[in-house]
Design brief:
mainly alpha, about 0% strand
Length: about 180
């Protein structure tokens, strides 16, 4: 079953919002990473509640993986929509199940990263750092949370079979089974 042709038009706003939220999480993570290098109280990152991650570089390397993973997915969706992998409709119909699976993985990682950023943003920062670093963690949290939301909406939009869900190619409308006899 393919993606309805009308769905390709609804994907563009979602892709644009996903790119914007990805840029927000990237900038937030860059600013957190920048403050990590010269930070004299690296114990603040123990609030992330990750095992064996008391150093900020150990916490942030996991978050960088999440950010880097989203980029090729968005590029692949844009390439399919533009038609670089064939016509836009055929490319989306052909690769949409793979994209949905990869987006599901990205969604799970983004939700986890949002939780890590939330733990950092909600930490009692008074003895360790300035409010600027807490605000950087909040920006990162917003980026991860919005990217999670838009990734989930992309999965729903890509998974839509539209009005043709009851149609089999070349066979017409599916009839329900009326008997269980073989």
């Amino acid at each position: 079953m393919g993606l309805p042709r009308s769905a390709t038009k609804s994907l563009w706003p979602l892709v644009a919002l996903t790119v914007i939220s990805w840029i927000v999480e990237l900038c937030g993570l860059l600013s957190l990473h920048r403050s990590c290098g010269g930070h004299e109280h690296r114990d603040w990152y123990s609030f992330a509640q990750l095992p064996h991650a008391t150093d900020c570089s150990k916490v942030l390397r996991y978050l960088w993986w999440v950010v880097v993973l989203e980029f090729p997915l968005v590029v692949a969706i844009i390439a399919a929509l533009v038609g670089w992998m064939g016509t836009a409709y055929n490319a989306l119909a052909r690769y949409r199940m793979a994209l949905i699976g990869l987006l599901a993985t990205s969604l799970a990682l983004h939700m986890w990263a949002a939780n890590v950023a939330l733990n950092l943003a909600d930490s009692d920062a008074t003895p360790y750092l300035s409010k600027t670093e807490v605000n950087r963690a909040r920006v990162t949290l917003v980026g991860f949370a919005l990217t999670s939301l838009f990734t989930a909406l992309l999965m729903i939009a890509l998974g839509d079979d539209g009005d043709d869900a009851a149609m089999e190619p070349g066979l017409g409308v599916r009839e329900p089974l009326t008997t269980t006899a073989l």
